Task: inverse folding
C-alpha cells in the first residue's frame, strides 16, 4: 500500500492512485499494469477493429506486467494472454460493453466536483435509506435518482445507501455477483453520472454510502482464474471460491477498492457485505487493516465503515474515549430484525427459529443490548455458539431495520411487511425502530407503505440460469411457511421479475400511502429534534429492558446528556398492563391517545407505544 493520494492537483479534480489498472498521465500516455502470476507473458490490445493494435507488456517481476502507451481517455483496451484469450482489466473503471467486453480508459480528473470540501456528517446523525439503483426509479439509473432526492430530504433521510454497483454480467441483478469491482455498472450510467449523483446528495447536506463485496466474485465474467490463480485459496464461500487475502497483491486490490470509492467518488461510507465469509488468518486481518487505513487517509472527513457479520463479532465495534469509533461505526443487526419480523408475522421457520419461543423477549434484549445472541447456542446453526457480549457498546453501534433488500428479496414472493402485518402493529414497531437510539435503516418505499414486491433477479442464461433457479428453491427448504409459494415463485432470470420489482411512485398519490409517509416523516422529525442532539458520545451499558406477561415491554436508555428516554410498548393485539408510571414528558404515542388512561390503570391498548423523555443534565465529559 505504498501508493498515496495525489498531491498538487486541484481539490475539485480527484484521481485515486493505484498500482494496477490504467492510469492516465499528464504527458498524454497511459500506464497499464496487471498482476498475472499464472502466465509467462501478457500483451496489451488497444482499440478495436481496424484500429486495433497489440503491444508487448514488460515483466516487472513477481507476476507484474506493465506497458505505457499513448491512449487517451475513451480508448478501449484489453489484455491478451499467451493462449490468445482476451480479458478485461480487473481494475477497469468502465465497461461500456459489459463484463466480457473491452475496458475503457477513464481520466477521473475530467469530472469537476461541485462539493469537493463536503466533510460528511457525524455517525450519530445517520438515518440510512437503502436502495437498488435499477429499481428505485422507472429509468433505473444514477441520473434518475437525483429527481427523488427532494423526497428523501423531506422525509428526514441523512444517508443514501446504494446496493452494490460493481459491474455484473447483463443489465439486471442485485449487484452481489459483481466481477469488476472498480467499474460502476454501465446499465446504471457512466462514472461521471455516479459522481454527479454523489455531488447532488452532498448539495442537500446528505451523505452517501456504498455496499461493497469483498468475500467472493460472481460466477460469470470473472477471468482472474485464467491468469492469477493465487487470487483464490483457502476453501469456498456459499457463493464461490474464497479470496486469498494472504497474498499481498490480492489484499491491496481490496484495500485500494475501498479507498477508490471513498476518494475518487467521495462516498462517505461503505457497508461491507457478509464479512464472516472473508477468510483471512493474517494479523492484522483484512478488516482491521482496511479500517486503520481509512482512518489514516481521511482524518478530516466523517467516513464511516459498516459491517454485515453473521458472527456478531462485537470486538470490531469497540469504541475509544468519549465513544469515538476505533474501527467500524456499526453493524447490521439481524437479531433485532428477526425478532421484529417473527413478532409481527408469527414466522418461526429458518433463522426465525432463533428468536422463538419468545420473539418479544428477544426484541427487548436486542433493543437494549445490541445483539440477542452473545455466545448462546443457535438452533438455526445446529446449536453452535454465536456472538460476543455487546451490552458495553453504545446503541449507535448497531444498525436496525424492519426491512432491507435481503429480508424482503429473500422470500419466494418478495413480500414487504405492509402486506404481512397488521397496520397498527407495524406502526408500533416503526416507532421503536425510528425513536430508539440505534441507527435506523429504511428500505426503499418502506416510508410510504409500498406494496411493490422486491424479488431476487439476475440476468444469467443457460446452465447458470437453471442453477440459480434450483438454488433459490433449495434456499427456502428450511422455511416451512415459504414452501407453498415455491410453485408460483417468479423466475429470477426473467425480465418481468425485474420489472415487477420497480417502485411504483404513483402510489404516493393514494391516501393510504400518504398516511404512511406522514407517519414516517413525523417519527424522523422527532428523532432529529429530540434524540440526535443527545447521541454524540453515547456510552454502553446504559439501556434497560423488561417484559411482563409476554407483551408489556418497558425500555429505557440514558442518553449522552443524561436525559432518559423511555418506551412503553404493548407487543401484542390484546391490552398490556402492569406498566410503572414513566418519568418525563410524553414525546409520542401510537395510536393517538393510547396513554390517555395510563395513569389510572397502568395499561396500554394492544399494539401501541408511548414514549417519554426527561430533561437531561450533562453527566459525561
Result:
Amino acid at each position: 500500500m505504498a501508493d498515496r493520494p495525489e498531491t498538487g492537483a486541484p481539490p475539485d479534480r480527484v484521481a485515486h492512485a493505484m498500482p494496477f489498472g490504467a492510469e492516465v498521465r499528464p504527458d498524454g500516455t497511459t500506464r497499464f499494469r496487471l498482476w498475472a502470476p499464472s502466465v509467462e507473458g501478457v500483451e496489451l490490445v488497444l482499440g478495436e477493429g481496424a484500429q486495433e493494435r497489440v503491444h508487448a507488456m514488460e515483466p516487472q517481476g513477481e507476476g507484474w506486467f506493465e506497458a505505457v502507451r499513448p491512449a487517451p481517455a475513451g480508448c478501449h483496451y484489453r489484455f491478451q494472454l499467451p493462449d490468445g484469450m482476451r480479458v478485461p482489466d480487473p481494475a477497469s473503471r468502465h465497461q461500456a460493453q459489459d463484463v466480457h467486453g473491452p475496458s475503457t480508459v477513464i481520466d477521473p480528473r475530467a469530472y469537476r466536483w461541485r462539493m469537493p470540501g463536503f466533510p460528511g456528517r457525524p455517525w450519530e446523525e445517520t438515518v440510512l435509506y437503502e436502495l437498488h439503483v435499477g429499481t428505485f426509479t422507472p429509468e433505473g439509473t444514477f441520473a434518475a435518482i437525483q429527481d427523488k432526492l427532494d423526497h428523501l430530504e423531506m422525509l428526514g433521510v441523512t444517508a443514501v445507501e446504494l446496493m452494490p454497483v460493481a459491474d455484473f454480467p447483463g443489465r439486471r441483478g442485485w449487484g452481489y455477483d459483481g466481477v469488476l469491482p472498480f467499474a460502476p455498472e454501465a446499465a446504471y450510467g457512466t462514472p461521471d453520472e455516479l459522481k454527479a449523483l454523489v455531488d447532488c446528495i452532498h448539495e442537500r447536506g446528505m451523505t452517501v454510502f456504498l455496499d461493497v463485496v469483498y468475500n467472493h466474485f460472481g460466477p460469470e465474467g470473472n477471468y482472474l482464474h485464467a491468469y492469477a490463480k493465487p487470487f483464490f485459496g483457502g476453501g469456498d464461500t456459499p457463493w464461490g471460491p474464497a479470496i486469498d487475502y494472504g497474498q499481498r497483491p490480492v489484499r491491496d486490490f481490496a484495500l485500494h477498492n475501498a479507498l477508490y470509492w471513498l476518494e475518487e467518488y467521495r462516498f462517505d461510507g461503505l457497508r461491507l457485505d457478509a464479512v464472516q465469509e472473508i477468510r483471512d488468518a493474517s494479523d492484522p486481518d483484512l478488516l482491521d487493516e482496511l479500517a486503520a487505513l481509512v482512518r489514516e487517509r481521511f482524518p478530516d472527513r466523517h467516513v464511516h465503515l459498516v459491517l454485515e457479520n453473521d458472527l456478531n463479532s462485537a470486538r470490531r465495534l469497540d469504541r475509544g474515549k468519549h465513544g469515538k469509533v476505533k474501527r467500524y461505526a456499526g453493524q447490521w443487526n439481524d437479531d433485532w430484525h428477526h425478532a421484529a419480523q417473527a413478532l409481527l408475522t408469527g414466522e418461526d421457520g429458518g433463522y426465525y427459529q432463533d428468536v422463538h419461543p419468545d420473539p418479544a423477549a428477544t426484541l427487548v434484549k436486542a433493543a437494549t443490548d445490541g445483539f440477542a445472541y452473545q455466545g448462546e447456542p443457535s438452533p438455526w446453526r445446529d446449536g453452535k455458539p454465536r456472538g460476543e457480549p455487546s451490552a458495553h457498546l453504545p446503541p449507535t453501534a448497531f444498525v436496525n431495520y424492519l426491512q432491507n433488500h435481503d429480508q424482503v428479496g429473500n422470500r419466494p414472493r418478495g413480500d414487504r411487511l405492509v402486506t404481512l402485518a397488521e397496520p397498527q402493529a407495524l406502526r408500533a414497531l416503526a416507532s421503536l425502530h425510528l425513536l430508539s437510539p440505534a441507527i435506523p435503516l429504511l428500505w426503499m418505499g418502506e416510508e410510504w407503505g409500498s406494496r411493490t414486491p422486491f424479488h431476487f433477479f439476475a440476468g444469467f442464461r443457460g446452465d447458470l440460469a437453471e442453477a440459480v433457479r434450483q438454488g433459490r428453491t433449495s434456499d427456502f427448504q428450511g422455511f416451512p411457511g415459504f414452501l407453498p409459494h415455491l410453485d408460483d415463485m417468479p423466475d429470477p432470470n426473467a425480465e418481468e421479475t425485474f420489472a415487477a420489482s420497480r417502485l411504483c411512485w404513483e402510489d404516493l398519490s393514494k391516501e393510504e400511502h400518504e398516511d404512511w409517509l406522514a407517519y414516517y416523516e413525523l417519527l424522523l422529525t422527532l428523532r432529529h429534534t429530540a434524540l440526535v442532539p443527545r447521541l454524540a458520545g453515547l456510552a454502553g451499558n446504559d439501556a434497560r429492558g423488561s417484559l411482563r406477561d409476554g407483551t408489556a415491554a418497558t425500555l429505557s436508555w440514558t442518553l449522552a446528556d443524561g436525559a432518559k428516554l423511555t418506551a412503553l410498548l404493548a407487543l401484542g393485539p390484546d391490552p398490556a398492563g402492569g406498566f410503572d408510571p414513566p418519568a418525563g414528558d410524553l414525546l409520542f404515542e401510537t395510536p393517538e391517545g393510547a396513554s390517555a388512561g395510563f395513569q389510572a390503570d397502568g395499561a396500554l391498548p394492544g399494539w401501541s407505544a408511548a414514549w417519554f423523555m426527561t430533561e437531561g443534565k450533562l453527566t459525561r465529559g
